[in-house]
């Protein structure tokens, strides 16, 4: 005679196998989801790291700065001559100019060549500053800056003028004082096209 418990044991064993298979599939799905999620997160982090590395490397200057402007400005002394300095190398920070003797004034001027007030200051004080500098009573250190670049109707006048001043400091340091004082006295109005001539 057949055992009545055998079919129910077989059913119970089939249920256990089905439950074990469902549990195995659940674990495999969970593992698969973790792998996919981890891969996406890792890929995103890797892409962000590559983008950050590229942006940082592109933002570093690749060429040296201009001669005679190691402080980011050109220092003009006795005889209206620029003080000779080395150029800033890529990645270097500006180095402050040497201190003057106690009897010589140290005048520093930060000028944006699009700035109307800077131009007015230079027109008003240029003769006096040149006399002080020529006699050796003072040095004038001119730092060209470009904070108004976006105010010249897309021509980047401030930036180009600051670059032109750097070209003069390197290529013609004996005329730095004359060209810089003349340039700062000629200020186009803001929000209109500046000079479209190349700066250097």
Strand-helix topology:
Elements: H1 5-59, E1 74-77, E2 81-82, E3 105-111, H2 116-135, E4 138-144, H3 157-171, H4 176-185
Parallel strand pairs: 3-4
Antiparallel strand pairs: 1-2, 1-4
Helix pairs in contact: 2-4, 3-4
Question: How would you sum up this structure, described in words?
Answer:
With 200 residues, the chain is an alpha+beta fold. It is 50% helix and 10% strand. The protein folds into two domains: 1-59; 74-185, Glutaredoxin. The chain is built from four helices and four strands, in the order H-E-E-E-H-E-H-H. It has a four-stranded mixed sheet. Strand 3 (105-111), helix 2 (116-135) and strand 4 (138-144) form a beta-alpha-beta unit. Helix 2 (116-135) runs antiparallel to helix 4 (176-185) and helix 3 (157-171) packs antiparallel against helix 4 (176-185). It is rod-shaped, with a radius of gyration of 35 Å. Mean pLDDT is 84; it is low at 195-200. Keywords: Membrane, Transmembrane, Transmembrane helix. Residues 175-184 have a biased composition (Low complexity).
> How many separate domains make up the residues?
2
How many individual helices?
4
Q: Radius of gyration from the CA trace? A: 35 Å
Identify the CATH architecture of the largest domain: 3-Layer(aba) Sandwich
Report the end-to-end length measured between terminal Cα atoms: 110 Å
Strand content: 5-15%
CATH-defined superfamily of the largest domain: Glutaredoxin
* Quaternary structure state of the chains depicted: single chain
| Main sheet properties | 4 strands, mixed
CATH top level of the largest domain is Alpha Beta
| Strand and helix order | HEEEHEHH
Question: Structural class of the secondary elements?
Answer: alpha+beta
Strands in their spatial order, largest beta sheet: 2-1-4-3
Low-confidence stretches: 195-200
CATH fold-level label of the largest domain: Glutaredoxin
Tell the overall outline: rod-shaped
- How much helicity do the residues have? 40-55%
Strand element count = 4
Mean pLDDT: 84
Region (Disordered): 175-200
Transmembrane segments: 34-58
Protein name: Thioredoxin-like fold domain-containing protein
Biased composition (Low complexity): 175-184
């Amino acid at each position: 005679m057949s055992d009545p418990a055998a079919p129910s044991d077989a059913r119970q064993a089939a249920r256990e196998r089905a439950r074990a298979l469902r549990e195995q599939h659940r674990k495999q799905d969970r593992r698969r989801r973790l792998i996919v999620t981890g891969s996406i997160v890792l890929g995103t982090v890797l892409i962000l790291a590559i983008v950050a590395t590229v942006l940082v490397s592109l933002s570093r200057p690749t060429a040296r700065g201009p001669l005679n402007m190691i402080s980011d400005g050109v220092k003009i002394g006795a005889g209206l001559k620029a003080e000779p300095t080395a150029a800033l190398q890529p990645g270097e920070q500006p180095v402050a100019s040497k201190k003057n003797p106690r009897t010589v004034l140290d005048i520093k001027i930060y000028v944006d060549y699009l700035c109307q007030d800077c131009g007015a200051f230079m027109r008003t004080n240029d003769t006096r500053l040149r006399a002080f500098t020529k006699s050796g009573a003072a040095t004038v250190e001119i730092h060209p800056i470009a904070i108004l670049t976006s105010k010249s109707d897309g021509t980047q006048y401030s930036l180009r003028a600051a670059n032109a001043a750097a070209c003069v400091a390197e290529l013609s340091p004996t005329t730095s004082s004359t060209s810089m004082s003349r340039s700062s006295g000629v200020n186009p109005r803001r929000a209109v096209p500046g000079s479209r001539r190349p700066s250097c």
